[in-house]
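I am writing to request your help with a piece of structural work I have in hand. A protein sequence and the C-alpha cells that stand for its backbone fold form the material at issue. Please examine both parts with care and let me know of anything in them that strikes you as inconsistent. The record follows directly beneath this note.
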Amino acid sequence: MTDTPPRRIGLPWYSREDYPRIRAMMIDPHNLASTYEVWLASAENNESVGRQAGLRVERIMIEPAAFATWCGEQGLVPDGRARTAYTAEMCARIAA
C-alpha cells in the first residue's frame, strides 16, 4: 500500500459571464465550445473522468483580464497552449 497522494491536475474553468469574452479574446476560438452550456457539459465530464481515474482535479478559473495580463507577461498569445500553461502554473501555486 502506498501513501503517495493522488496526482493533481488543473482543469481550465470559466464563468458563464466570462465565457463569451474568453472566446472572443482567443486566437483559437474554434478550439472552445461555441456555447457555455456545451463547454460546461464537456468540462464536467472531463472532471468526472479524471476523478474516476484517481486524479485530484482542480478547477482553475480563467478570468479574461488576469489571463490577458499573464499572457502579456509571458510573451504568449491567448490560445490553447497559453491556457494549458496558465492552468498548470495556477495549479502548481495551489499545491505549493
